[in-house]
Design goal:
By secondary structure, this protein is mainly alpha-helical. The protein has one domain. The chain has 10 helices and no strands.
């Protein structure tokens, strides 16, 4: 008689998801803080262009780090769906759908980081433009990236609110983590809508408004790696959910 298929333990999902989440956070920080944060000079298109031209390989590693982050997004979505579906399957699925939209938007948005490499290259067709024009166009592309990033984070803000609610209701993950994730979601939404509706206000909020999301997501990832879920309570919720 064939053996019945055995589903992997939720602890395995938790550990894998936590490790991928930490990798995701590290890759995102590399691209945003250590690459673009050191190369882009706010308000100075020429200085920014010169920095990109001086370190094109470093600039490309930032883009690569972002793509690695989004590659990790997909298995992390599955992990959270598996871990949270015993609470409410429909809400867990809704979080996955919001997360898919976020990832698709942000992956497409990476093209705005590739465009400066074209504009600042040595192709003959670029001779039709003055260097200052090319610098300005490259900088406009980078500004567009900021807005595209904000658009994507609107959907991720919704993900954090939903997942935070499910974590608070779970009983097998700390309620405090759920609260932190919901605060993170509110911060993402506030920052993104402020960027669109009131850019001057958004510049006052940033980067302080990103501190709660970093704390929440890092804490959740570390908890999943170190502690995982309370297995008896998870199994009880799974039985109740049917």
């Amino acid at each position: 008689m064939a053996n019945a298929a055995v589903s992997p333990s939720p602890q395995l999902y938790a550990r894998i998801g936590g490790l991928l989440y930490l990798l995701l956070i590290a890759a995102g920080c590399w691209g945003q803080l250590f690459v673009r944060g050191t190369i882009i000079v706010a308000g100075d298109a020429t200085a920014t262009a010169n920095n990109i031209m001086a370190s094109p390989s470093l600039w490309r590693t930032g883009i690569g780090g972002d793509l690695l982050m989004h590659l990790c997004d997909v298995p992390v979505m599955i992990v959270f769906y598996v871990l949270l579906k015993p609470i409410n399957r429909n809400l867990a699925l809704l979080a996955v759908l919001f997360n898919l939209v976020q990832t698709a938007v942000l992956v497409a948005n990476k093209m705005t980081l590739v465009i400066p490499l074209f504009l600042l290259g040595n192709a003959m067709y670029l001779k039709a433009f003055a260097p200052q024009q090319l610098h300005a166009l490259a900088y406009v592309s980078l500004r567009a990236h900021d807005y595209g990033f904000g658009f994507g984070l609107i959907f991720f803000g919704a993900v954090c609110l939903i997942e935070g609610y499910l974590i608070r209701r779970s009983g097998y993950l700390p309620k405090a983590l759920g609260v932190l994730m919901q605060v993170a979601g509110a911060c993402y939404l506030l920052n993104s809508f402020a960027l669109i509706l009131a850019p001057a206000f958004a510049s006052m909020l940033f980067p302080a408004i990103m501190m709660p999301p970093i704390l929440a997501e890092s804490s959740l990832a570390i908890w999943l790696v170190v502690k995982g879920v309370d297995l008896p309570k998870w199994e009880e919720k799974l039985r109740i959910a049917g």
